[in-house]
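Rotation project, supervised by the postdoc (A.L.). Task for the rotation student: set up a whole-complex structure prediction and record inputs and outputs verbatim in this book. Inputs entered:
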Amino acid sequence: SSNEHKLNFKKSKEACLSYIQDALLQKQWKRAAEFLTCYVESLEKDYSREHIGPSEMIWRIGTEILWHHSQSSMKEFNCFMEQMKTLGVKRYLKVCLEHVFHLLCNGQTDEAYQNLSLAESWRFGEQTAIQDKEMKLVQAYRGLLDYYSWSKQKNILLERGEDGFSDLAVEQEMHGYFRKAAVNLKEIIKIPGVWDIFVKCYVDLLEFYGDHNEARQVLNEYAYNSKFPANPNAHVYLYQFLKRQRESKKSLISALKILHDIVPSHELMIDFNTMLQKSKKRKKCRLGLEVIFAALDYAGWKENAKAWSCLARQVKQIVISEKHIDWIKQEWNSRKDWWPAFHFSRYSAKRNWQENKSLSYEKALVAGILLGKGCKYFKYISHQGCKAQLKRFRMLKKFVNRHNPVYLRISG
Amino acid sequence: MEFPAALFPSYFGAGPPQEEGGPAPVAGWGEHGQVLEGGPGRRQVQPAFVPRRGATGERWEAADAAAVPLLLPRAGCWIPSPGPQDILYRSDLCRKLRVGKSGATLDFARQLGHFFVDHPEDAFGSLGRLLHKNFYLGNSKLQRPARSSTIRMTALVEDIDRLEARRGCPRQHLASRLRWFSHLCRDWLFEVPLEVLADCLHEELMQQWSNLLFDDSLTGGALAWLPPEDGGTPVGCLVHPGGQAMNHLYFQDVVLEELPRTRGSPVQFELSGRIQQVAAARVDGQDFVGVRSDYHCGVWRVLGKRGAAPTPLQVIHTDVPASCLTVSPHLPGELSVCTQSGTVYLWSIETGLQQLRHDPQTMFFRDHSPWRWSDFTAHPRVLSCADRTGLQCLDARAPKRCHFDLFKVGEEAGCQQGERVVLPMYLGRAHPSQYLVTTQFSVYVLDERLPLVPVLKWAHMMKAPPLFVHLMPGKPGRSHKVLLGASRTQELLLLQYRDSFWGVSSGGSQSACQLAGTPQKLHSIAGCLPHLPTQLPHHHHLLQQRLTAPAAGLAATLQEDGPHKSMLIFQLSEAGDVFCQRLTHKAAQPPTSPSRDEATTAPGSSPLFKAPATSPQGLAAALRYRRWLRVLSRVCKEPPRHTWPPSLSQRRLFTRRDLEGPAGPSSLQRQMRQRLRQTMEEGGRIQHWEPLALQPPPLPQTLEPAGGLDSLSARLTAAWAGDWEQWWDERTSFSVAQRQRALRERRRRQKRAQGRRSLSASFTSSLTYQSELSELSDTGPSLFSPGRPPILSQEGSPPAGSPPVCSPVTPAASDEALLSSQSLRCRGIPKERRKTLRDYLSVWAEGPPEPPEPLASQASQLCIPSSQSQLSSASQPRRKRPRMGF
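Outputs recorded:
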């Protein structure tokens, strides 16, 4: 009966698919390709109601095979993609985008641009929400390519400007690219998402044409709109922009303070700490200590010599001035039960000494002050340092011995 | 670690997942996802782009055609966990009724019946004792004074027996007597009220069934690899569970060679529960190994130096089963524990347990699963805790106040509807702030610094959810390798991802995460089956059952030996087997035309183990296999139950009256018995029971081979029983004289049988019948060939492998006499015992019960030439009927 026939057909289709899957997972591209030619038959009698139909499967599998198959060429790939685009209306934009990505990764920017333009002009009835998103992406990527063209023209102009003559045609073209890029980039960055490259390019365009207010607004929106994810880069871009604009210390600090609140382990925290240490205000110095302590809580900072030297410097300052030892005490309070095992074990002393002497110096200083001269880490490092007859370590030992009472005050 | 300067573009939505979906078989292929400018600078003429997926990765190729066993099977056969056939109701009637309806019917009645039969004391103990005097099991009529207080149960028992005999018959209807009895006593007969008991049983059944569909207790895996110390000898330690109940913890040293081998015997600990998870982390040069069973968690410390014995440090007991145990990679002696009640603890060896959260509800939306997980993060005081709906991070110093959402099943991560978290894992060894989350559809890599938005997402297309994950961090500039493992299907997938694609040389800037290379399927344990030498069907079945046991753990290690890089992957199965496979790194090559491996690893190509001489390693693997198979067949000797002959209780063939008979044996019986005895002494046979048939009994011709089966069938039957080697030995060592005698004997029989050929036709129809006959008549020991298949023997001879016990058959007549209750009374057996005795005897008459412990196989077990198997007990492995765990 026809029902049975359908069932059999479905079964053999599934079997074929599993063979293909198996071959793909074992990187047997040739075998997979052979099976795929059989699987194409499944298009004819597509009864499936699954959310990935055979045409999408063929697109996905075929693409994967053509990426890796030893005998495939870009021409074949393009041809296959064109066929796939006509295979399903719903997926047209998606396939276009993937095609463009592949062209871009292979350095064929012009072809990619053509494809994007074609995709942009595509219309088919009412668009679904997903298609709408895809269309926005198509436009954004076209904007990005326009931006690269703009930046190419800009470089040409700059070079020629150095030589002393200007080219009106090139300049015109450049402005044309700017307009096209700006329109498209502006659109996508309004929608919540992670748009790092688009934002960067758009801000670059705006800055070049001197529209700093718009740039600032864009960056503020990207960083502080609560509908956007808490992307550290958004804050970084804002900070870098403010720095380029030579904004006041205060606004730089407030930008970094927010970054510190969301990502205490960000690498900019070193800059932040240095900035705060230089400040004359007590409150800011205090914040600086907090920032560097918080950064060193993270496993990724464990062996960061720069951060340890920041902390060592500030702790040393505080100990010498004998003011604000309570700051250290407060920071140390929430860490004293686990920092010794985390940072100042004998094992890490040995390793730090072997791998990075200056790191071990900074750490030993901090350890000596926070945990006293009896601390394992300090004892090991100062012993090794003295043995190696390094002056700096002898000084360190002296310094810690002299300020041992501080330890009692911190731990008490 | 620096944050990537730019991330791949993506949309960010909020709310429940929009995308409809389900398992999509090819969803992970053919997509770049997004691209990002990946060039070192903007000054370049052509910006170079890198894709999120589809970049080239390292090439790793399997060194062998299949995974190779690392450990020899231990004594004590594996008891498979219950399968659908044990739990579900199987009946044609039921199937017909259920056509079109999804959902399984649990065979509740059968399991309840099992409980009553297996634990009568727990089911009916006290009332049974009370009513002891009022239930009469004999056959005779009750006397007057007793009748007022005693009821006769015989008819009831017969009804039950009849019901049992008609089990599965669509026409069965309850006997009214039974219905009457059950109405009368269902309220008071049971020790535990029936409703309560039934509720518990049903709950347990549902639990078992849902475990069959998806068993999350194994999450995380029960295999850990403690790598050798840097620069030390290449000896690592494999921590794995074993034993029949998987309650022994082994620390086994393993030498990393071409084919890793065990060294010395393992350090062994016996625990009080089945080991569900083994987690390990190295802190300050010491390995901390956490072991989770349902109600206990323990922690061991192994010093970096190999050879130092592992020290148990602490054990905790939980009231609710624990679902997670992870070991801190930051601080020595810190672990995190979750229980199914939704409690998360930070467990420190020094300070004890600290409760971080207690919430029986799931975090982001309602989900029924009590599964919870917890792991460490980049900050040693911040722990992540997960349920099926997502992940949150909490600060242990202020868990109520300080927390943030790291992952949510929702639009934020672009999840599908119905997607659930299966296993989260901290990827600290590769990148201090990255996290891996697997769901049944996809894998996600998350960065703590950018919560909720996955920095990498890929549909893994595995058939079963990945319960095991193993990370092998790559050196700077190289890809990190992640292994995903599923339990039921034993799938194993190798992924590579990179978190810096600009390379260290060009500024060393961190860049966005990208998937490198295509995912690669690795050998599963069961994948070796087609490569093994052809087995006998029932051996094959056993082997298949053993090898397809669900996977229970995963561990791996990277090994660098100069230019040669290889990857060793260990996989543990629920049967306790550990298999390993090696992948070798191939330096970047231009994709070649159909490579050699493509041809050889294709299914149907020549199996490695048939031509092992091609490579020395192949030979070693083949030898390893051979040894493993030999030990396995020795350890699990008992043949599967279903090959036993169908047996019939002769009690059911006769009515009670038939069995009763006169008080004393009649003269005819006496005569018969005498004849029987006489024949037995002579070793002859009785064909006709006519009293005057004194002529030599007619002998069907087909029975002739009983004296010595023709060599082909003898060999085949011996081979079938697995004793082929023995048969050969015996055949070759058979002395000539013996052979001649046998020949002479045979010729004599042939001559005798000449005239009776016509009779033979009626005996050839059924092999079983024929063999029964031959057994009842051929009682002389000389007539048994040594390699006689036990399948054909009926009187409880031990199963394959040991020579059959040639005991004379209990004469049927005396059996009957024994069974009759009058004769029992004659022997002074009290009436309440008679039933027991009768049942006992009828069991013997019915067929082989549990076979007696064959000494031969015990002895063979004791001399396993293995370096690591510590024989815990030499008891005969017995394949038990999988049954509910009461």
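Student's summary: Residues 126-245 of chain A form a domain with the Serine Threonine Protein Phosphatase 5, Tetratricopeptide repeat fold (CATH 1.25.40).
Supervisor addendum: Chain A is about 75% helix and 0% strand.
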